[in-house]
Amino acid sequence: MNSQVKKINDLVIEIATENGSGSQSANNILMRSIFYMGIPVSGKNLFPSNIQGLPTWFSIRVNEDGWLARKDKVDVMICMNERSVAEDLKKLQSGDTLIIEESLKSLITRDDITVFIVPFEEMVKEVCPNARLRRMVVNLLYVGVVAHLVGIEESKIEHAIQKQFSKKPDAAKLNIDAVKFGLDWAKKNVKALETIQLKSSDKTNGKIIVDGNEATALGLLYGGANVVAWYPITPSSSSMEMLIKYLKKYKKDAAGKNEFCVVQAEDELAAFGIVTGASWAGARGVTATSGPGTSLMAEGAGLASFAEIPAVVIDVQRMGPSTGLPTRTNQGDILSCYYLSHGDTKHVLLIPGTPEECYEFGFDVMNLAQDMQTVVFLMSDLDLGMNNWMCDPFKPITKEISRGKVLSAEQLEAGKGFKRYADVDGDGIPFRTLPGTESDYAAYFTRGTGHRDDATYTESSADWKKNIDRLKRKHDTARKLVPESVFVGGGKQKRGLVAYGSSDPAVFEAIFILSKDYKIEVDYMRIRALPATAKTIEFMKNHETVYFIEQNRDGQMASIIRAEEPELAMKIKPILHYDGMSISAMAIVNQILKAEGK
Amino acid sequence: MIVVGKTNRVGKSIDDYKGGASTLCKGCGHDSITSSIIKACYELGVDSHHLVKLSGIGCSSKTPAYFLKNSHGFNSLHGRMATIATGVAMANKSLKAIGVSGDGDTASIGMGHFVHLIRRNIPIVYIVENNGVYGLTKGQFSATADDGSFLKTGEINNQPPIDLCALAVQLGCQFVGRSFSGDPKQLVPLLEAAMAHKGTAFLDIISPCITFNDHEGSTKSNKHTREHRQPLHDLDFIPYYDETVANYQEGEKFNLKMSDGSVLKLLKLDKDYDPTNKIGALSLLSEMGDSEVVVTGLLYKGEGKKSFQEAENMSDKNLSELSIKEIKPGTQALLDFNSGHQ
Q1: Which of A273, A434, A436 is the closest to B80 by Cβ?
Q2: Best exposed site among A139, A419, A569, B207 by fewest CB in 10 Å?
């Protein structure tokens, strides 16, 4: 039973609509209104792989204490879509609240919930004379109704609308009128909820709400990405669309010409090839994709790794295999991307867990590819990439753009040449030259076949082994160059939690619940890159039990760690979540309790 | 004729345009093409430092190692040369690109990229060394093998060939030629004209595979090609720096002006063929496709298509040569981002 104790600023609102109906805009306004009241909020869009007509849900979690991971619980459900009512009703517990369009009332099968039947379809006719716009405007009505029920300030809704439609005053007015209409109807006809209310707070001062894809795009812009080759695929497309938008705005020369170049490639094989060719010739290339695209890039990734050409791939992971659930989240590409290609290939993976890190690693990944002369992946996922995350404003990046070990004509003449694949510095990273360098010492022949230090063809076993061992050394050098893991707790607990990527907010909430409700104390490490750093391995060595939290079925990261550090194998206990929904705190808590025998 | 010890207009000897020793079979058509490339580059006085040699995978794709030792080379992936070329064009538009591919590399595994390279008018001399078979995997048919052609094993090809030249013309390629590895007299000026073209220049060069496809019954053998080739014209290339170039008036039907000011002179043979007529080119290729005749020469020279860099409104400065200061965006993007998301 739902407790009758009044909950303040702790609420999940879920809105069920039809995709393509324009509800996204209304939901965003609702979320931002709460944000402008100073209460922490997150918004997750659960959408079908479809353009119009299928059920879609938007889930808004409001929490004064800042717990913003997805919660397996809905307090207020808004039902606008006939096709999902039955499913929506199941999500409510006794005493929860349902707001439903009047024409759907015959579908209500429960009497243990608080129901508000609202004639949205009738109301919209009054507020919106233009019949074509009604499908969209009707969504603003539920914003007004729910605002009255839970106590969202009208002025904040207006502010959210003004911000969203700053360049379209007519649209802003229509939106404001519609919300007011809904609000007035509610004031006249129903009482506000007694159990759940929102009250202004001060927890969002100075914060921003962003999605990871746009944050990544901004980081790439600052990382100097200037060649973009991509093939559209959900959920990565918006990262490239945003980057292209930023490049067009901020990277024109004095004559208005582009200091960048974009190609929408014919497929992912081409996207990767173009990035490789551009980076080989001295530009800073990037592509973005998701699991199916990385599969197509596999051969190219092997070549770029073996021929030692910088290449950056943004992988915004989704549910696979195959087309899978293309609009649901997953961390299922860790294993395939780490080893992407055939033979002894291993890559460097940067794994952001917050929008700030999408931004920072977006910068880092561009430099690291140049510094390492290899393929570097930025492993985001749909939850991080496409959902709404509250965070601090991004800070200027103080690091410098790096070109890596590139020799100039003067350096070549002074040194009387160079050997393309010689390990001069002992870090496995050789020197390279760019086409167009005006020295007879500059040219070398790039190939995916066996080569000697001077890049000439060889099939000699000794040469092959020497080269592939150097590449291993180079990969190990990455352990010192990648972002360090984040460590939380004093490191004195017996149990260590390990996670990565978008699981972070759920893990923090789980740690809080485990401590408060079950007196289980843990240390927490969030891995932010592969190959694993020395401290990452040390953390696992120093804990008796290592709970390895991953959003995939087989514990992909754990299997990489086990393969590289076999002595850790016995202490790693997988905590896995892989149903397509972003991970919740209780998904972690329940599995740990089970493992602990509680 | 090349005289030993002689140098070209930039003071380089023919040796400066050579590469490593070929490891192809003795008598391979590809080696003849390599010689023609070397000769064309020598005659033109090409700046090796600003030229790249690109290829895919296969016998033909090995050849960039055998010419222009002072140029960067990239022997990439099977079928993917076009993608590498596209990236290079995006990074540095001052680079001249010679791409060597094969009929398997282009007409099968790399077809998608070939088509899109032409669509984008990527600047490159795109050469297909066409022998109708997969040489490096020991002689399987390729997609340019003629219907009814048969292998040494007796196996007959039952599928019609893809005519890469007709395809290139149809796709809007503005320089399309066909030649024969055994005809350097035609090939060298054709290569030189291709190098003077600013967008995609496509050359399909019949290059007999001496080991797997040079037997009686093959339609890509030396004998068959020599017997059935029909040159459309004799070619003479007058580079832009040659003082006599001014004598050749632009617009004259058989003096084709190239984008860099050079002129390709077409010396009329029996047939009155106009290579600036796209429909005429397609019609000739369609007609000849049904016969055993191999027409060679400049098949089509179009005009007016924007270069890739123009179409993409690229800065005059090469992306590869931007300084770190130029690469770095200012603080405005961050300020706008933060305020836009508050």
Answers
A1: A273
A2: A569
